[in-house]
Write a structure and sequence with these properties.
2 domains; eight-stranded mixed beta sheet; 35% helix; single chain; 4 helices; 215 residues; alpha+beta
Length: 215
């Protein structure tokens, strides 16, 4: 999942943290500039120059470490779905229906081209058209309802087995992970946001998938 910001009161903690960080950076840069101006105006002594250069270097290191650390913490911390204190994982199931106008298919798979080709999936549930891509979904048509790609997530096996029977192996299982509303997630500006989402699209056989290849 890409980064997404949700308007949430808990995320104000993260906003305040960034405001304080920017203020610290501003005053550090301002201090560097003032010291350099004073050095040019007041003195040209070698010892003072060296002290100023060392002080400026330390301030630049502080600025660099502060901004890099905050950026990594806020935008590049991968979600840990096993962290139940900060992430809530829910599962939902929908029975697939045959596509209107093309009653032989449950799913349409459109292939793309490029250095990193991606697949786009279209399917129908309870009369509603759903669309997703291979970053967030995969099609399972084998004996095991949970395919290799889907095994990276934990699934409620009893529910899977139930839908295997009741839907005649035509259903979609959705895993949705959300960041909980708490102080820690608020600091990362992620409280209430989606941490990860995955759709396991189950079909009885590959013949129920219509593949559209690029021309």
């Amino acid at each position: 999942m890409g980064y997404n910001f949700v308007m949430n009161i808990w995320n104000l903690f993260g906003v305040i943290m960034w405001i304080l960080a920017i203020a610290i950076v501003y005053f550090l840069i301002r201090g560097i500039r003032i010291r350099r101006l004073k050095l040019e105006i007041i003195s040209q002594e070698k010892g003072i120059k060296q002290f100023t250069m060392i002080r400026d270097f330390i301030d630049f290191v502080i600025i660099f470490v502060l901004l890099i650390s905050l950026t990594l913490f806020t935008f590049f911390t991968p979600p840990d779905l096993s962290d139940h204190e900060n992430i809530k994982v829910t599962y939902s199931f929908d029975t697939l229906i045959l596509e209107p106008g093309e009653p032989s298919y449950y799913v349409k798979a459109r292939l793309s081209t490029g250095k990193k080709p991606i697949q786009y999936f279209t399917y129908w549930t309870a009369g509603a058209k759903q669309e997703t891509d291979s970053w967030h979904a995969s099609i399972s048509d084998g004996k095991d309802p949970i395919n290799i790609a889907g095994k990276q997530y934990k699934w409620p096996t009893k529910e899977i087995e139930k839908y295997e029977t009741t839907s005649e192996k035509a259903f979609v299982a959705t895993m949705l992970a959300r960041y909980k509303n708490n102080f820690w997630n608020g600091l990362k500006l992620k409280a209430g946001g989606v941490a990860d989402e995955y759709h396991l699209i189950r079909v009885p056989a590959s013949s129920f998938v219509k593949i559209s290849r690029p021309k």
